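I'm stuck. Protein, please.
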Amino acid sequence: MFFERHEGGERAVLVHLEGQDEQNREDPHEFLELVRSAGAEVADFLNISRYQPSPRFLIGAGKVEELRGLVKSAESDLVIFNHVLTPSQERNLERELECRVIDRTGLILDIFAQRARTHEGKLQVELAQLDHLSTRLVRGWTHLERQKGGIGLRGPGETQLETDRRLLRARIKQISKRLEKVRSQREQARRARRRAEVPVVSLVGYTNAGKSTLFNMLTESAVYAADQLFATLDPTLRRVELDDIGPVIMADTVGFIRHLPHKLVEAFRATLEESSQADLLLHVIDAADAERMSNIEQVNLVLDEIGASALPMLEVYNKIDLLEHFEPQIQRDGNGVAVRVWVSARDGVGLDLLAQAIAERLSEDVVQQSIVLGHDEARLRAQFYAVGAVTAERIAEDGRQELDLRLQRSDFNRLLKREGWQLERFLEQHTLQ
């Protein structure tokens, strides 16, 4: 560690402020879930009504006294705020409470640090943590104003704080370089998938909406899934076969949360780009959550931040098993396009409808055409059969083959190019009248 602070603990007193404006409001129930996900034991919960945050403590001096009493009576060694604290507020509170204090951002960072499994995930979390800590280095030190002393070290030198800042900047630079390499490797993999014309479907949504459970059911995988916030951090990609579409890459991604720390979005940009480069987004929504409309709004804000808001999207309302008398269904817009599917990933209900809706949305660029081939075009006929594009075949009166085709426009283009044709010219001469 680059700095000293009070020893950590698992027994925490929680502080939540009511009376915040709607834009900055936090959900106390979600706060409790975050704390439990971090593995802390809730010793006490202090709910404070305050409309004007104090610049020194965030809460008033009287509430600081009350909080000190709760910490002592509960024998707690940690206080967690459900709000973002400035470095000076954290420092002032730690001095008054004589225990460790962290805010909502620090709590989320701790959960991410516990959940990261891959080397890339650990690097991303460390980068976000170092960015967060860089403004808090002053905390806990009592000797930072002193220069290094002793024989050979007299003179200008540098303070201990300056040394720590320099080391921290060097580590941030090193991690950023490694993540840039990861981003480059991911981009190469994406280019390879684009060359192979394999569509990518990315699952996005609020944390604990059931993305990993749905992903496991669709891909027959065993990705870790649990009823807790941020169960998934590291992106997982699987190849599946869909009727009428062929191979599709499914991507499971990290869940979003309201007021997701900006530094986390920056650190996880390489991972989140899997969503921004997708051909279709599956926005998984907890249908039984009373806050689902607010959660949808928060997800859309993050999608906008990573440049994915304009991508085609299919909403998947999950957990209908928690709703009374609700059947799985596909909902369509005025043009008949599937825009919403209601399913239960846990019970496997409605997944056939979801697969159908995904295939429909991905096949919006599918060519369905009846053509006629001459006697000298047997090679082209064999090519259509080889890619599984022929749905029916007949023999015309003049002996030529009539084929009913269904395939992706990109596959059609690529196949015809190999035979020296352009799509428009081919259809002009071969379309069945």
User: Anything to note?
Assistant: The CA atoms of residues 122 and 400 lie 62 Å apart. The radius of gyration is 28 Å.
